[in-house]
Structures are given as structure tokens and as C-alpha cells.
Amino acid sequence: MPVLNKIQMKLLLLMGIGLLSFSTATAQAPKEIPEQDLVKMKLKIHKEVDAQYKKLLENPDKDNYMSKTAMDFQMDTTRIEQFMKQRIAIDYSTMGMVQASYDAEKEYDQLLNKYYQQLLKLMETRDKPLLIEVQRNWLKYRDSERKMNALLTEEKYSGGGTIQRVILAAAYLEITKKRVFELQGYLDRI
């Protein structure tokens, strides 16, 4: 089975389980979330995560040491994941899931730039061109992978259906998210 199909199946399974457990627990229809409520939700999550972060800095776990960069990364990704999870819990319509995935991808793209810049600053001047080349190659990969995913969601390959929009949005998110984790892995090695 091709890797792409495995990824799609995992994403669908995770979304399906989440939707099933949420919808059976609440038995409510999905509802669109007004922009001001999204802003409030995001602020609340940021405050909660910031409080966790502060607590970690004040009382470090000596058995589970994490560098400041690793803690920053954990908090950054937690903010995105919690926000996406809460959004989908309220609006689990196809459009709600698609929009949550695209918005999370944009936030991961911001993290990608943040951690890329950190890595660039830490590298010696003579080694920076390699990182720049690798990142340019990744951007080409990302763009071609997006085209391939978009092509495979067309009706002639997928059979159609609104779930294809969810699959496409989730694929875009996973491509960027994976790269953010790769960059963090580079930072952890320095």
C-alpha cells in the first residue's frame, strides 16, 4: 500500500474516531464559530499554555530534562494542536475540519520560519548555504507534494465526495508539520 494511502487512512481514522466520540457524547450538531469566539478561544489556550510553560520554568523536572528550545517547541505545537482540537470539537462539519486544518497549517508554517531562522543563526557562516539549499529543496518538494495530493483528490482518482477536501487539508497540514519537527530535530542536535 503506498505511503500516501496509509497517511490518508490514519488521518481519516483519527478524525472519524474524534468525530464519533464527540458527536455521540454531545449529540449536538456542529456549529460555525464566529471569528470573535475563535480569537477568545485562541487567547484562552495561549494563556493556559503560557501558565504551563511558566510552571515548567519555575519547577523543572530533574528526571525529565528539556532544553529551553525543546520546551518552547512543545508549547508552540501544543497551542496549535489544542486550538485545532477545540475548533473541531465545536464545528466538526466538513468545512469546519477543512478550515481548522488549513489554519493550523498556516500556524505551523509560521513555526517553520521561526525554527528555520533559529537554526540559521546557530550555524557557522560557511555551513549556512547548505541549510538554505536544503530548505529550498524542501519547498520544491512541498509544492509538488501538494500538487500530487490535489490531483489524487480529484473525482477521477478518488471517486469524489466532500471527504476529499478534508483529506487534502490534512495532507497539507502534515507536510508542513513534519518539516517543523525536522527543523526542531536539527536544533536539538546542536
From TrEMBL:
UniProt key word Signal: yes
The entry's keywords: Signal
Listed Pfam families: LprI
Signal peptide (UniProt feature, chain positions): 1-27
Cited InterPro entries: LprI-like_N
Domain Lysozyme inhibitor LprI-like N-terminal: 93-183
Domain of life of the organism encoding this protein: Bacteria
Protein known as: Lysozyme inhibitor LprI-like N-terminal domain-containing protein
Organism field: Pedobacter steynii
